[in-house]
Every structure is written in C-alpha cells, then in structure tokens.
Write a structure and sequence with these properties.
Layout: E1 4-15, H1 17-23, H2 30-44, E2 46-55, H3 65-75, E3 81-84, H4 87-90, H5 94-107, E4 111-114, E5 119-120, H6 126-129, H7 131-158, E6 171-174, E7 177-183, H8 185-199, H9 204-213, H10 219-222, H11 234-242, E8 250-252, E9 255-257, E10 264-266, E11 273-275, H12 285-291, E12 312-314, E13 321-325, E14 332-336, H13 337-341, H14 353-371, H15 374-383, H16 387-393, E15 394-399, E16 405-409
Length: 413
C-alpha cells in the first residue's frame, strides 16, 4: 500500500515513576506504547518522523524534555500529527491537557489521535466528545495516586528510613542500605570544625572567613554538584549549626509537594518528621545545645571575640598584639597596637591570625600529648581546644619583630 505522506507523525510516549511503582505491569510500559503506536501507523500508512519518549516523568505538568522537543518540531512544521496510546500519556493535568488539544494543536494544524480512547480531532466521534471527561478523570486518578504515594513515603520516614536523594553534608548513604546514612569522615571533620569555632565564640562571618582562608570546600564543591558555590556563606553555616541531623536525629519533610505545582514549598517546622537516634552523631548534644543557646550577636568589628584575645604581647614594646581586618574584610591579621597608633614607635608584627592560631593550637596539642596519658589526651582533644583551656595553660604569648613566638605557661601539667 502507498504511504500517506500528508501526515508527518510524532509518536509521544510517556511513563511516570508512579506508573512503574503502582501498576507493576507492562500495559503502560514504554515498549507496549511503542508497539501499539507503530502498529497503528503501519495499518494507516502514515509516515513516522520521530518517537518522543519521556521515561520517568509525571503527567501532572508538561515540563518534560521529550514533550518540549516535540512541541519545537510542531512549531517548525516538521510534524503535523501527534499520536499517543491514550490521553493519560499526553498528560494528567486537566487544564493544560485541554489547552493543548483545544488550542495549541488546532493553531498549528496538528491532527491529534489517542488510539485507545477513539479520539481523532479530524473526524467527528463519540471519543472526541468524551475528551474533557476523560482528561478530568485522569487528573483525579493522578491526585489519588499522588496521595497514596505521599502516605507511603510518610510512613517510611516515620519509621526512620532515609529517603533523600543525597545525604546531608557530613554523611553519605550506606552502600549496604540506601535508606540509612553513615558518617563521611572528611566532611564530618568540617562540620566539627564549624561547631568548634562557634563554641569558642566566633561569629558566622568569622567562621566563613576562616573556612575560605583555609580553602575548605563548601558542601556543593565537596559533593561535586553541577551548580557549585565556591565560597562559604553565613546561611550555610547557620543551617549546619541548627541541623539536628548532626546529633543523630533524622529530619525529613522540610519541604512538601503540592499537587499541580512544579516546585516544592517549605513545610512548617511542626510538620517536619523527626526521628531520634537513627544514626551516629557527629557532635554531642551538649555542644549542639550550647552553640544554639548563644543569643548575643557578635559584631564584625575588630573588637570581636577570638581565641587568643589579650594573650599576645609585643616583645619590642610590651604592648598587646591585636587583630585587625584587611580593607576587603576577608582576612584577619595580627598587629602591634602601639604600631597602630604610631608606625614609628614599633613594628607591625603582621601575620595571618588564623594560621597563627593554628600554630599555637598544634603546639598545645603536642605539649598535651607529651604530658598526659592517652585517655585524658583523647578526652581533651575530642572536646576541642577551647579558650577556657588556653587560659589555664597559657600566661602570655610573646611575638618579636621577626615573628618568632615564645609561649609562657601559667599551669604545670
């Protein structure tokens, strides 16, 4: 038989994750849809231009790559007939589905056929009259399906199963059980450092600067996400400090999906699903409660709290060594306060404060290790080198113009 070249056919095939999970049958499968449409095209001698497949995409909206590509072909007049197995494959959104059938397809002179529904927009048929009713029922079915799936997911979350696509920063999915999270040591150390700094009185902007100075990767960089954020933000740090995940509680349901909306919306905190003690914590509950009890806002002036405040002295003039910020307010440096008043009276003693603090802490750790038994040492180190401990150990730190450091101890171990 001679092929009918009048119609250039686009075969549209769609299968959602919901169809796969709930139906558990082959009637809606990609393969089944292709076979039905190909057979129909062959019987009617139409010319198939392309098959547009969206596997794993919901019918509640039309933001699907295959469908979008088909629409472009229609606009470019490469296709003038669309064939689907049934109306639900085109979509399950009542308003948008009718919009395409009643307005878009006629505007571009596209003939639309739904095989199993006996719908053919070029001829008068009972099937055409039933389109609004069937589309409405398809949306109703989708609502029921969506509700059933949400109920099933909620039950799993309440039972302490992790259902996120990616584990929170500091954790990773257990290779043996995808519904369980385990500690990612490298990322967990970053989380611990953030808590340690906050516990020692650093503001979130100071913590941000420290992390950026040390070139510590942000969560998006660490996870190698497509849209990477190279610099830390106060928001990210605050989210980490407030997240109960780090004390072993699984928190899910922070956002919820509203039927018919493409994006999720925030869920009120009282509706979050929190299950306690589902995984190993990264920080202690005491530390978590303490950093979240700090209500006094620390300003970003030079008088900010820092770990070695009032401990540092200039060897040349005896004045205190303070901490100042550079013009861009990105880094903090040591500086003799006498020099700050009059540069002719002393030397700058300029060093990167955070690197200097790191040297002091490493020195203290070495001394503690040499003078304490392993158990005491581990307890102190795990608890973090805090200002209270430094005040017990150090009387003063002397820095000379050549940046040599002398530490005077006030407490004998």
């Amino acid at each position: 038989m001679k092929m009918n070249n009048r119609y250039l056919v686009g075969a549209y095939i769609r299968l959602s994750k919901e169809d796969k999970n709930l139906n558990n049958k082959d009637s809606e499968s990609i393969k089944n849809q292709k076979e039905i449409i190909r057979k129909y095209i062959e019987e009617n001698n139409y010319k198939l231009i392309e098959e547009f497949v969206d596997d794993g995409y919901t019918g509640s909206n039309f933001n699907r790559p295959g469908f979008i590509r088909m629409i472009e072909k229609i606009k470019n007049k490469e296709i003038n007939m669309v064939i689907v197995k049934d109306l639900s494959r085109l979509g399950r959104n009542n308003i948008e589905t009718n919009e395409y059938i009643d307005r878009f397809f006629p505007k571009y002179k596209v003939r639309f056929i739904s095989i199993l529904d006996n719908v053919d927009t070029e001829i008068d048929s009972i099937g055409n009259e039933m389109i609004p009713f069937k589309v409405l029922m398809n949306e109703y079915y989708n609502r029921i399906t969506s509700k059933s799936i949400r109920a099933s997911l909620k039950s799993k979350k309440q039972n302490g199963l992790f259902l996120g696509w990616k584990a929170p920063f500091g954790y990773k999915k257990d290779k043996k059980d995808k519904n369980r999270i385990v500690i990612d040591k490298k990322a967990a150390n970053i989380v611990k450092e953030i808590y340690r700094l906050r516990e020692n009185g650093y503001s979130t902007i100071e913590i941000k600067n420290i992390l950026d100075d040390k070139k510590i990767p942000t969560p998006s960089v660490y996870s190698n996400m497509k849209n990477k954020t190279l610099k830390w933000s106060q928001f990210t740090i605050n989210e980490i400090l407030k997240n109960e995940t780090y004390i072993g509680n699984l928190i899910q349901g922070k956002r919820k999906k509203i039927f018919g909306l493409k994006s999720e919306i925030k869920n009120p905190k009282e509706n979050w699903i929190i299950v306690n003690n589902t995984h190993k914590p990264i920080v202690s509950k005491e530390t978590f409660n303490y950093v979240n009890s700090i209500k006094k806002k620390i300003t970003n002036k030079c008088s900010n709290f820092y770990l070695l405040k009032k401990m540092m002295r200039c060897k040349e003039c005896g004045y205190s060594i303070g901490v100042i910020k550079n013009k861009k307010r990105k880094q903090m440096y040591t500086s003799c306060t006498n020099y700050q008043k009059n540069s002719k009276k002393c030397f700058p003693h300029c060093m990167n404060y955070y690197k200097f603090e790191e040297i002091i802490i490493d020195t203290i750790k070495t001394i503690l290790k040499d003078n304490l038994d392993n158990n005491k040492y581990e307890i102190i180190i795990n608890n973090g080198i805090k200002r209270e401990l430094l005040l017990l150990l150090i009387d003063k730190i002397i820095i000379d113009k050549d940046k040599n450091i002398e530490i005077y101890f006030s407490f004998k171990l």
